[in-house]
Amino acid sequence: MASVQLLRANSKDGQDLVLVGRSIAPMDALAEEIKSGGANATVLPCDLSKAEAAKVLADKIEAQGFVIDVLVNAAGLGGSGRFDQPGMVLRGSGKILPAASTAAFQPGPQMAVYSATKAYVLSLGEAITFELKDTAVNVTTLCPGPTATDFARVAGIEDVTLFT
User: What are the sequence ranges of the domains in the chain?
Assistant: First the structure.
């Protein structure tokens, strides 16, 4: 895995590491390898898919006095499944309209999470389009530009440059 190779390289440069993940045994083995090379490695087991896990992890890091200078984020959600079996396919008709945004096509300073979620929606729509290509179900991913809605107020982001 590329992230493990990156961690090994960082430890060889003398950087101490905090290893976080669900699988304790592989992290313990990597920590021992890193320690044998002269760097420190601390394992903090954490399932980041759980609600509040990131907050609990941040609290553990702070409580142990660690200062994180470099963050390697290799976490991903491993959900899978087939989209070619919804009721629309069985009926022989239907339309799916995922709502992305023009924000899906570019980074969004001060709006990184929003832009990333819209990039996800765009990617998901493209994947579903491919999966449903031989069916009577049509997928059109919507990517509107700025739209006059109450979104900024509700999200508490009225001061973000995009909305000012």
Answer: 2-63, 87-163
